TrEMBL record, chain A:
Name the record gives this protein: Glutamate synthase (NADPH) GltB1 subunit
Annotated source species: Desulfosoma caldarium
InterPro entries xref list: GATase_2_dom, Ntn_hydrolases_N
SUPFAM superfamilies linked: N-terminal nucleophile aminohydrolases (Ntn hydrolases)
The Glutamine amidotransferase type-2 domain, residue ranges: 2-357
TrEMBL record, chain B:
GO MF, any single term: glutamate synthase (NADPH) activity
Domain 4Fe-4S ferredoxin-type: start-end pairs: 19-48, 73-104
InterPro entries: 4Fe4S_Fe-S-bd, 4Fe4S_Fe_S_CS, Aldolase_TIM, GltB, Glu_synthdom
UniProt-annotated binding residues for [4Fe-4S] cluster 1: 93
Binding site for [4Fe-4S] cluster 2: 83, 86, 89
Domain of life, source organism: Bacteria
Root EC class: oxidoreductase
Name of the protein this chain belongs to: glutamate synthase (NADPH)
Organism encoding this protein: Desulfosoma caldarium
Family to which the UniProt record says this protein belongs: Belongs to the glutamate synthase family.
Pfam families: Fer4_16, Glu_synthase
Record's keyword terms, sorted: 4Fe-4S, Amino-acid biosynthesis, Glutamate biosynthesis, Iron, Iron-sulfur, Metal-binding
EC number of this enzyme: 1.4.1.13
């Protein structure tokens, strides 16, 4: 079972905070991968309003191909952070030439495009780069989006963090999602590392999603190019959130109603029963059958946590105004926010969605019975 | 064979018959129950001659023959009276003196069972044991990473949807705009397949209806039953129990006059309308109710004269093409109930099923598709249709599901599978396999008859007289002397037993796969089979 932790803070923090929490929970991951998602960034990235940031790993050859491709479609580099690694990688960590985090100016001809079109094009560029990388095995691209950075690598989280020197100032962020992976039934491959990302939405999961195949079939057949990949059964959690937001126009509180709908007899008495019944019916193929705990970040910088219908995975949320943390285990929470009022910790149950907004003033608990 | 008997081409010995009746002289008390109960008059009172040698004591008298007569059971060898192996004789024998046994070699009867140029007709099944469904295993067992669920304690939601489910965007938009959203029924995934009032006896039908009502109203299991082609008793049409009934219309339109006239007086809408274009047991052939079973009651419900055979045409005579049949019929049926009732076609398994399916995807009123595979049973059909026609259900359903998935309509048009589900007793395993191949639910008939009423049919050509109204158990007979043998209350009780047990078994299958929140439709990663070709054909894992 993987271990998850997330932080949302008014002040930018180092990702090491989350890595330390993963290290405390090290019994729960096997070094098959670590993933970081950073958003609401601090430092030099703050001034880059709207500039999409490309995150990925490249071989030297891949970097050249990237540069010529991006030039060709009119993207100019605005700011970059290249993580060069020492000559020898620690045991269990593959050697890569470069980890790239680079912000681009949008091409001039995009200036008058509507927001939706820009968002779709950014995704298309990411997918194109991913495909190019798969052809020659020289690039792996995680995200290409404003105000988002992703770093993924195979290996023990702390070892990888020290090796890549993730404590650097340029990586401070207000929202940090981190996952230490326990490989289950899929190949050890960077695209299978959580968190997963699609158009500003990132989620990570522990546990397994036994309903993966029908969900994958449903999403893949929506005709939306971003619904692809699926090296991990947890990727569908990101895509379901995306589908709900983009295609159905529903808010985070409805996420649980899609993935773990209420039972029919409960819906009969629910104040929003008719709508929820239709939602359940038409989104039947998106019902998950975890054991899963999902932590994710919405494009509007809300961080949330949900559980499967049977709550077969642990998850706890706590903190203080200005800093809240989400974690698989209490010890992870203790590592991130030791000076909190522990009596206010929340362990969301099978009907709950926990949301912390960008103001980071309180933890909001929505029950499926109320929405 | 009598010494002065005439040997004709069709003279057979007992050995040439498929079933031989063994009778014990020592145990028989000559009570006559067996000969009374035999549905095909295969046995009769036999008078036998016996010679014994009488040797008196002493030497004065020579030994002599003594001729005596004794009585017993004689089995007829005329093909028209061949034993069908139903075993009723042994069931009624108070002394275990009689039993029918299957011949160890292939019978010769099959060459003579077409007198008058009439090929063999019978009810029942294909009589082919085995089948692919029993060989499919559930291989994705949840272990440490995703612990298996507790089939006895966790909550399960194992229902399915019958009706066209719109894509989420469209559904929510129409809900907002108060537009027309196709009707959808939330039902139990095991449907009692179409068996008509006529094919089944009144007691059997009543028993099933009572059982269905109990399951729904007392146990909260939304089980549905299809009427088959033959209408529906008028009182049921006007009762609240109609909501548990799927009304079938087929090419004979039998019973529909009665149904249409009852519409204004209906308290409840039916669950759905099934338009039967074909049946798995006799693909490409219409329904058939032979004259033996068309008594006054059946004739009245169907609007026909009594005592005539009722063969439905192989196709709907009012339609000439698929688009017309599907569009016109589905729309007119939908309209009859104000677009409040799902209407879906049922076809025989066929290599052309995808053409029908593709057509349905483009029809906004089509509520699903039921495909009935070759292993289905029937009340009456030509032997050749039953044994040699049709398409297996597994690949038909799988192809259909994968086609829908490619079109992105796998959530829209539910597929229902029928034909041979549970034919070897493994109802839940067969149903789960088909659901994971892509069926939204399954229809079953034969299993229900065997489990709820003790149908004697087997996969080895046993009994099979459903067509001539002499069903020894009273399940498919219209003769009150026979159907009084069947207590509808007991049928209802057994039906409840069957569904409750099925539910437990289904949970025992899905819980170890880690599924409980929804029916695992299309969860093909859980399936495996030890046959590489079959695995490739069905797109499931090959495991040995």
């Amino acid at each position: 079972m993987c271990r998850l932790c997330a932080l949302t803070s008014t002040e930018p923090l180092s990702p090491m905070k989350a890595i330390e929490a993963l290290d405390v929970m090290r019994e729960g991951h096997d070094g098959s991968g670590v993933g970081l998602f950073l958003s609401d960034l601090g430092g030099p990235w703050e001034e880059l309003e709207g500039a999409p940031i490309l995150s990925g790993t490249f071989t030297n050859e891949g970097l050249k191909r990237l540069d010529s491709f991006m030039m060709e479609i009119g993207f100019m580099t605005k700011y970059k952070l290249s993580i060069k690694t020492p000559k020898t990688a620690p045991p269990g960590v593959p050697k890569r030439d470069v980890y790239l985090i680079r912000a681009y100016e949008l091409p001039e001809e995009w200036d008058h495009l509507p927001g939706d079109e820009i968002r779709n094009r950014l995704m298309q560029v990411r997918l194109q780069l991913r495909q190019m990388g798969e052809e020659k095995q020289d690039m792996i691209v995680f995200s290409f989006w404003p105000d988002c950075i992703m770093i993924k690598e195979i290996g023990d989280p702390m070892t990888v963090a020290e090796y890549l020197r993730l404590d650097r100032k340029e990586l401070h962020a207000r929202i940090i999602l981190a996952q230490g992976r326990q490989n289950t039934n899929y190949a050890i491959n960077l695209y299978a590392c959580h968190p997963f990302f699609l158009q500003g939405i990132a989620t990570m999961t522990n546990g397994e999603n036994t309903a993966f195949v029908p969900i994958r079939e449903f999403l893949s057949s929506r005709g939306f190019p971003g619904y692809m990949g699926y090296q991990s059964d947890s990727e569908v959690f990101t895509h379901i959130m995306h589908y709900m937001r983009h295609f159905l126009g529903l808010d985070v509180a409805y996420y649980k109603h899609i993935i773990t709908p209420l039972q029919d007899e409960v819906l009969e008495k629910h104040s929003n029963g008719t709508f929820l019944k239709h939602l359940k019916r038409s989104c039947r193929r998106l019902i998950i059958d975890g054991p899963n705990c999902v932590i994710g970040c919405h494009p509007d910088k809300r961080v949330f946590m949900v559980q499967d219908r049977k709550k077969l995975r642990p998850g706890v949320v706590g903190g203080r105004p200005g800093l809240y943390a989400f974690s698989s285990e209490l010890c992870g929470l203790d590592a991130m926010v030791p000076d909190r009022d522990k009596s206010k910790d929340i362990q969301p149950m099978h009907l709950d969605t926990v949301i912390v907004g960008p103001d980071r003033q309180e933890v909001r608990l929505c029950s499926q019975m109320d929405t | 064979m009598l010494a002065d008997g005439y040997i004709s081409p069709s003279s057979l010995s007992l050995r040439d018959l498929p079933w031989q009746v063994h009778w014990s002289l020592d145990k028989c008390t000559l009570c006559g129950r067996c000969t009374t109960v035999c549905p095909v008059h295969a046995i009769e009172l036999g008078v036998f001659r016996k010679r014994t040698v009488d040797t008196p004591l002493g030497v004065s008298q020579a030994p002599s023959n003594v001729f005596k007569v004794f009585y017993g059971i004689r089995q007829k060898t005329d093909p028209a009276y061949a034993c069908i192996g139903c075993g009723m004789c042994s069931m009624v024998c108070p002394n275990d003196a009689i039993m029918a046994y299957r011949s160890e070699e292939l019978d010769k009867l099959r060459f003579h069972i077409n007198r008058g140029g009439q090929p063999r007709r019978r009810g029942g099944r294909r009589n082919v044991p085995g089948g692919i469904l029993d060989r499919i295993k559930f291989i994705r067992i949840s272990m440490l990473t995703d612990p298996a669920l507790d089939a006895g304690r966790h909550e399960f939601e194992l229902r399915t949807l019958l009706g066209r489910v719109l894509p989420p965007e469209e559904n929510l938009r129409l809900l907002k705009e108060n537009g027309w959203i196709p009707p959808v029924r939330e039902i139990y995934p095991l449907i009692i397949g179409g068996m008509s009032f006529g094919a089944l006896s009144p007691t059997m039908w009543e028993g099933l209806q009572m059982g269905v009502a109990y399951l729904n109203e007392e146990l909260g299991m939304p089980v549905r039953m299809c009427t088959g082609e033959g209408g529906c008793p008028p009182r049921l049409l006007r009762s609240r129990f109609l909501k548990y009934v799927i009304l079938q219309i087929a090419s004979g339109y039998f019973g529909w006059d009665e149904i249409i006239h009852a519409i204004p007086e209906m308290k409840e809408d039916p669950c759905a309308i099934e338009i039967k274009y074909g049946q798995g047991a006799k693909p490409g052939d219409g329904g058939l109710l032979m004259w033996y079973k068309v008594n006054k009651l059946i004739a009245a419900i169907r609007g026909v004269p009594p005592g005539v055979s009722l063969p439905s045409p192989p196709t709907h005579q009012t339609k000439y093409s698929i688009e017309e049949a599907v569009a016109k019929m589905i729309q007119s049926m939908s309209m009859a109930w104000g677009f409040r009732v799902p209407v879906y076609p049922k076809i025989s398994g066929t290599s052309t099923a995808l053409a029908v399916l593709n057509n349905l995807t483009r029809n906004p009123y089509a509520a699903g598709l039921a495909i009935d595979g070759e292993d289905g049973g029937t009340g009456a059909a030509y032997n050749v249709s039953m044994n040699h026609m049709g398409h297996p259900i597994a690949s038909n359903i799988r192809d259909g599901y994968l086609t829908l998935a490619r079109l992105g309509k796998q959530n829209e048009l539910p597929l229902f599978a029928g034909g041979g589900i549970g034919k070897n007793g493994n109802l839940a395993a067969n149903a789960a396999a088909l659901i994971m191949l892509g069926a939204s639910g399954v229809q079953t008939g034969k299993y229900i008859m065997q489990a709820t009423a003790g149908c004697l049919g087997s996969e080895s050509d046993r009994c099979n007289v459903c067509n001539i109204g002499v069903c020894p158990k009273g399940i498919t007979s219209q003769d009150p002397r026979l159907y009084r043998r069947l207590d509808p209350e007991k049928v209802a009780e057994r039906l409840v037993d069957v569904f409750v047990a099925f539910d437990k078994e289904l949970k025992k299958i899905v819980a170890p796969l880690g599924r409980s929140t929804s029916l695992p439709i299309g969860m093909s990663d859980a399936l495996g089979i030890d046959d590489a070709a079959a695995a490739q054909r069905l797109h499931i894992a090959y495991v040995v």
